[in-house]
Design the sequence.
């Protein structure tokens, strides 16, 4: 199912003007605070009336200001998960979960048992929201949205209000959700690591405008977007890999289109798909395959793009097989190595991270 | 026990209870509506409505009673039309209900409005995104959440109606057995030399009813709050 969004709205001191398509799967809406992400979700859910705009989901028009169409929120079937869980305090967890069922026109969609099972909230059903932890409440909120039989799940920074431990608790459930349901998900976040774990494509917003859209791997390895993607420290790339072997010395061999990668033991079955994240500052560039070096992961690559920063740094985009990789080096090194677009080099990966629990993700097809 | 009070005194107590119960029950739906409109809607004339609702709280009760007489008396603005369809309020116990309801209305609206303003509108929005139309959101989310406020408002209104004197005596007079409420009866006894003793009995009843109402409201709102918070 395809969703098309175009919105224009003037806030005090800030103008939103965006237009993009949302394909099936998980699409991340990414950008710093104040970039207009939440306004897009509000407009989609019908909680805000934009000055101008058009939103259609799978052919159904939810909003068209030119034709004076504005569907009320309860007719849109957009399952919303907010930063604050917004559970009904006077209802039990079970009643919260079943609330949307009352109103959903057809009784199809996911079953109650399946959702409870997937989110691991079976033991909580009889309890009240007030007695749950933040992570449990957010899981119930996700289940409640799912059970209202929505056409689309819109999640507005569902993890932002939680601490790191709680985030780590919920992320695997979101991955189950992505892998086990067919509902398209629009996922708002300003966390690169969350998005690389969850999303297939991404829409980058900055100051109320769309800066770039595309598959996560391509967008996050675009050196021109580095300043928008949380700066050089957050910059990095995502690579799809398949578990090939568990070596006797405790390393796991992953196969990628660029060649093999060795990682400290990854608890995954052979053949499982993973997405690994490589930070730009953990990538070194060498002109020849280096000898006598402790790094295990050295892959041949081609320079695709170079971007000199304002400071002494430079971002280099490399192509390894079918993957794109970002490397952060100094401008001095770039000049000394004589790097230019098209040059053949070797990428030396100092560290490769597999997010815990990030197992079973299908390969992303751009 | 029957010897404590004369039949007229018993009737005054019973009438007061009946008047207060009707006044509370009849003004509750309108009270919720007015509180909702004042708490949630922006419209032209909102301050006028707010002022009108609160007027009986500020005006001397005797003035309210007189205004009621002008409006709902048999020759009054509204009263003359009500009489055509057979409804007479002035000098009837039904008029005492109207007077008590008008006097108690501001207290009821205030309590319900406060609890409405405490409801998190974002939770109601969430109900909307789950498919509930605005009336359903009100019935399944807003109403249960303001139940403590409704209970407190109703008990306050009931207690106020039990004590209402000035507007009542002006609008429906003080006819024993017909429009003589508890406070009117106490007043009548105090006008007669040596009536203090009988008045004191009624005063005790009045204190007892007020305390009981307060206790019931405390207990009920706590029970409801406990149910909502699930603690």
Sequence:
């Amino acid at each position: 199912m395809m969703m098309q969004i175009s919105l224009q709205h003037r806030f005090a001191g800030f103008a939103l003007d965006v237009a993009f398509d949302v394909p099936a799967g998980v699409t991340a809406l990414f950008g710093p605070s104040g970039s207009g992400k939440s306004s897009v979700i509000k407009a989609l859910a019908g909680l805000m009336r934009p000055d101008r705009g058009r939103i259609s989901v799978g052919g159904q028009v939810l909003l068209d200001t030119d034709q004076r169409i504005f569907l009320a929120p309860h007719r849109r079937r957009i399952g919303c998960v907010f930063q604050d869980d917004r559970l009904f305090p006077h209802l039990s967890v079970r009643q919260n979960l079943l609330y949307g069922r009352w109103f959903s026109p057809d009784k199809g969609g996911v079953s109650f048992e399946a959702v409870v099972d997937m989110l691991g909230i079976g033991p909580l059903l009889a309890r009240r929201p007030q007695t749950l932890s933040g992570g449990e409440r957010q899981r119930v909120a996700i289940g409640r949205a799912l059970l209202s039989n929505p056409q689309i799940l819109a999640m507005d920074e569902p993890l932002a209000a939680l601490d790191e431990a709680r985030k780590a608790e919920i992320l695997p459930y979101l991955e189950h959700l992505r892998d086990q349901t067919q509902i398209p998900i629009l996922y708002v976040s300003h966390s690169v690591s969350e998005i690389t774990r969850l999303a297939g494509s991404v829409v980058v917003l900055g100051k109320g405008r769309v800066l770039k859209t595309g598959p996560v791997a391509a967008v996050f390895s675009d050196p021109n977007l580095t300043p928008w993607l949380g700066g050089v420290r957050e910059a990095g790339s995502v690579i799809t890999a398949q578990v090939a072997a568990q070596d006797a010395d405790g390393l796991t061999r992953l196969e990628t289109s660029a060649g093999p990668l060795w990682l400290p033991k990854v608890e995954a079955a052979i053949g499982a798909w993973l997405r690994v994240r490589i930070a730009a500052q953990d990538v070194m560039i060498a002109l020849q395959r280096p000898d006598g070096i402790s790094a295990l992961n050295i892959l041949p690559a081609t320079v695709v793009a170079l971007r000199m920063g304002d400071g002494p740094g430079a971002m280099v985009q490399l192509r390894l097989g079918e993957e794109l990789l970002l490397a952060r080096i100094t401008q001095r090194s770039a000049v000394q190595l004589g790097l230019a677009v098209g040059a053949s080099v070797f990428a030396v990966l100092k560290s490769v991270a597999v997010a815990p629990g990030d197992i079973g993700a299908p390969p992303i097809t751009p | 026990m029957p010897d404590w009070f004369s039949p007229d005194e018993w009737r005054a107590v019973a009438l007061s209870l009946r008047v207060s119960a009707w006044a509370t029950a009849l003004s509750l739906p309108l009270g919720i509506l007015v509180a909702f409109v004042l708490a949630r809607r922006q419209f032209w004339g909102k301050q006028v409505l707010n002022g009108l609702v609160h007027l009986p709280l500020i005006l001397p009760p005797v003035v309210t009673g007189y205004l009621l007489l002008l409006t709902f008396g048999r020759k009054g603005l509204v009263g003359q039309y009500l009489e055509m369809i057979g409804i007479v309020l002035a000098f009837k116990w039904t008029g005492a209900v109207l007077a008590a309801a008008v006097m108690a209305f501001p207290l009821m609206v205030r309590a319900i409005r406060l609890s409405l303003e405490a409801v998190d509108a974002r939770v109601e929005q969430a109900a909307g995104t789950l498919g509930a139309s605005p009336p359903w959101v009100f019935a399944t989310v807003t109403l249960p959440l303001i139940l403590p406020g409704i209970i407190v408002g109703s008990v306050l209104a009931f207690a106020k109606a039990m004590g209402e004197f000035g507007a009542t005596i002006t609008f429906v007079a003080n006819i024993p057995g017909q429009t003589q409420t508890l406070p009117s009866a106490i007043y009548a006894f105090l006008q007669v030399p040596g009536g203090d003793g009988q008045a004191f009995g009624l005063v005790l009843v009045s204190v007892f009813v007020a305390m009981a109402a307060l206790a019931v409201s405390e207990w009920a709102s706590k029970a409801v709050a406990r149910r909502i918070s699930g603690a």
